[in-house]
């Protein structure tokens, strides 16, 4: 009897780009990919924090380099990436949130959130996919979305709008790029203990509500997303595209 061969999650010889890699989920994604053997280009806006993150990864022996990049600046992003060539894996963890009641949302807040979470994500995807296609790479593009791309949330109308739109964008791109072997998916966390989530978690009433909604009864840690990133980046998910991997502790199970 010939047994099936388990897929590997190793990424040796692969080049990966991670945006928003200077902290939080982005840094976790970068470490996860590097730990599986990928050469990781860590991209972020803040030079000092990015340098600190890359130095910490280098100290652990990871193959890593820094790239200053602002996904909201579409022209600047394209110029910065053109010299990088094709990546086998792209993880977009750059994101923005400006939470407020919908009636208090300003056009500036709306445009800022959409500029990063949707416009930047869109053109990062097309840029990465074009290079993958031209190089003949069966690459993987992963967007860090959110459980809020599947439900609504208090004071999160703009954020939810950006993430719901991101989910639809990914499905359409998966259909278009599937014939080229290019996969694109989202990873959708619940509240993860990062600086971005800390404001909500410091409010006792809000934290109690959050923990009540998460069926596993706890807020997520950055480590909770690392396995999902490796799965979507590697051959373990070779037949997975146009879908959302929920890492939400059961929030959306209702």
3D structure, described in words:
Helix 1 packs across helix 8 (223-233), helix 3 runs parallel beside helix 4 (107-135) and helix 4 runs parallel beside helix 5. The model has no long low-confidence stretch (mean pLDDT 96). The chain has one domain: NAD(P)-binding Rossmann-like Domain (Rossmann fold, 3-Layer(aba) Sandwich). The protein contains 8 helices and 7 strands. With 254 residues, it is an alpha/beta fold. Strands 3-2-1-4-5-6-7 form a 7-stranded parallel beta sheet, sandwiched between helices.
Q: In brief, what are we looking at here?
A:
Helices cover 44% and strands 14% of the residues. The protein is of the alpha/beta class.
Topology of helices and strands:
Elements: E1 15-19, H1 24-35, E2 39-44, H2 47-59, E3 64-68, H3 74-82, E4 89-92, H4 107-135, E5 140-144, H5 157-177, E6 183-189, H6 195-201, H7 204-213, H8 223-233, E7 244-247
Parallel strand pairs: 1-2, 1-4, 2-3, 4-5, 5-6, 6-7
Helix pairs in contact: 1-8, 3-4, 4-5
Throw out a few tags for this protein.
254 residues, alpha/beta, Rossmann fold, 7-stranded parallel sheet, 8 helices, 7 strands, 14% strand, globular
């Amino acid at each position: 009897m010939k047994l099936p061969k388990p897929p590997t999650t190793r990424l040796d010889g692969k080049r990966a780009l991670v945006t928003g890699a200077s902290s939080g989920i982005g840094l976790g994604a970068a470490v996860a990919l590097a730990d599986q053997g990928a050469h990781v280009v860590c991209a972020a806006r803040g030079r000092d924090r990015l340098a600190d993150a890359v130095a910490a990864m280098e100290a652990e022996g990871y193959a890593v380099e820094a790239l200053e990049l602002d996904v909201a600046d579409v022209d600047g992003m394209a110029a910065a990436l053109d010299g990088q060539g094709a990546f086998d894996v792209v993880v977009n963890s750059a994101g923005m949130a400006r939470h407020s009641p919908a009636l208090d949302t300003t056009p500036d807040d709306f445009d800022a959130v959409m500029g990063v979470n949707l416009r930047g994500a869109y053109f990062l995807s097309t840029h990465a996919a074009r290079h993958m296609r031209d190089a003949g790479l069966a690459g993987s593009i992963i967007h860090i979305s959110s459980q809020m791309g599947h439900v609504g949330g208090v004071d999160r109308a703009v954020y939810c709008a950006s993430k719901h739109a991101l989910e639809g964008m990914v499905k359409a791109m998966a259909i278009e790029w599937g014939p080229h072997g290019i996969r694109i998916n989202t990873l959708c966390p619940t509240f993860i203990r990062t600086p971005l989530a800390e404001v909500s978690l410091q409010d006792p009433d809000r934290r109690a509500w959050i923990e009540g909604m998460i069926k596993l009864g706890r807020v997520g840690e950055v480590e909770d997303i690392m396995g999902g990133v490796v799965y979507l980046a590697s051959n373990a998910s070779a037949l997975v595209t146009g879908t959302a991997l929920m890492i939400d502790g059961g929030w959306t199970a209702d």
